[in-house]
Amino acid sequence: MMNQSDGPTLLGFDVITVGTLLVAVATFAVMLAIYAAVTVRDPMAKRVKSLNARRNELKAGLTVMAHRRRSVRRNTTHTDKVRRILAKLRMLQDTQISEIEQKLMQAGIRRKDLAYVVIAFRVIAPVVLGLLAAFIVYWSDTFPEWGSFKRFMLFAAALGIGYKAPDIYLKNSITKRTDAIRKGLPDALDLLVICAEAGLTVDSAFGRVAGELGRAYPELADEFSLTSIELSFLSERRQAFENLAYRVDLEAIRGVTTTMVQTERYGTPLASALRVLSAEFRNERMMRAEEKAARLPAIMTVPLILFILPVLFIVILGPAACSISDAML
Questions:
Q1: Distances (CA, A) of 142 to 133, 134, 137, 139, 153
Q2: 90 backbone φψ class: left, alpha, beta (φ>0; ψ -120 to 50)
Q3: Residue 175 backbone dihedrals phi, psi, to 5 degrees
């Protein structure tokens, strides 16, 4: 005779327990969403702060005020210590430092001195993760059934992850930032065309476009604002456009900067050149969207088989399986 206190089961799992766990997960997700919505921060404040810092830096030039030198010295104390330690260990290479500095700029991190921190993290993280993995698989014997090959592979994977973690983080940040800039570039070029036809100068046009796109595309507005500031203060305007191409890892931006440099040098009409670039980038964005839409059926095959069809089978055959299980018991 079936015990009345036992709850219904489905495929050997207690339905009430599974439902309780799902409700707990859903509650946690709702609370996390509410927290993210309440604590959302305005991206404009951080952008304005970095732009003001860059403007002050260009204004100061070589004659930096004494109190600013002291503040910079206080802010870079830790990075200076890291740099000195790495220099003593002979782990600093000019090409490596310049490459990491460019990646930091492309990721939206304006402090070039953090390149030394990235190099130090490449040294420290493999040691820490390697010791942790060695303690888990060798000393504590957490997995006694594992052979020597599996233990060595876990140890090697910990070392590799520790060494590549900074590069993976920077690469992901660069990819996200580049995609965001790519999406807003055609609209920005259209606004630049309007500003150029209205008679604004190039630096004023960049500043106006940055102000208009500050909410929709903050990453692109940040780059355009920096370019506008550098156009106003740098002695060579070409350097400002080259800095823009240096900070953004995007072929379209390099095309825009080349067009700007040629316009400044030869006096060609800016509006017509930007209009052609805008149409080209807009067509490219449409082709990229069509390509993603064409790949969608093949991409959805695996989630359909793994997640959607099993749920349908459970919903359709679940009540019948519960009835059959109760009748057999």
A1: 10, 10, 6, 8, 15
A2: left
A3: -65, -45
Residue 243: CB atoms within 10 Å? 18
Q: pLDDT tens digits, residue range 197-249?
A: 888 888 888 889 988 888 888 889 888 988 888 888 887 888 888 889 899 98
Output the CA angle 67-92-127, nearest 5 degrees: 105
Q: Which whole-number Å values give the CA distances from 100 to 119, 122, 161, 166, 175, in the listed order?
A: 9, 12, 18, 10, 15
The neighbour count for residue 197, using CB atoms within 10 Å, is 14
As a residue count, the chain comes to 329
For 102-151, write each residue's pLDDT tens digit.
888 888 888 877 888 888 888 888 888 888 888 888 888 777 777 888 88
Q: 106: closest CA among 48, 44, 57, 177?
A: 177
Q: Which residue has the tokens 């604004």?
A: 200
What type of residue sits at position 274? L
Distance CA 52, CA 306 (A): 51
Pairing mode, strands 9-10 and 13-14: antiparallel
Classify each residue of 151-163 as buried b or exposed e, where b means 16 or more C-beta atoms within 10 Å of its C-beta. Answer: beebbeebbeebb
Strand partners, 14: 9
Residue of 309, 306, 320 whose CA lies nearest to 10: 320
- What is the separation, in whole angstroms, between the first and last Cα of the chain? 8
Q: Reduce the DSSP state of residue 109 to 3 states and report it.
A: coil
Q: What are phi and psi of 150, to 5 degrees?
A: -65, -40
**CB 219, CB 286: distance < 8 Å:** no
Nearest Cα neighbor of 110 from 215, 223, 214, 213 is 223
Euclidean distance between CA atoms 322 and 212, whole angstroms: 60
pLDDT at position 9: 66
Reading the block at residue 133, the tokens are: 């993995």
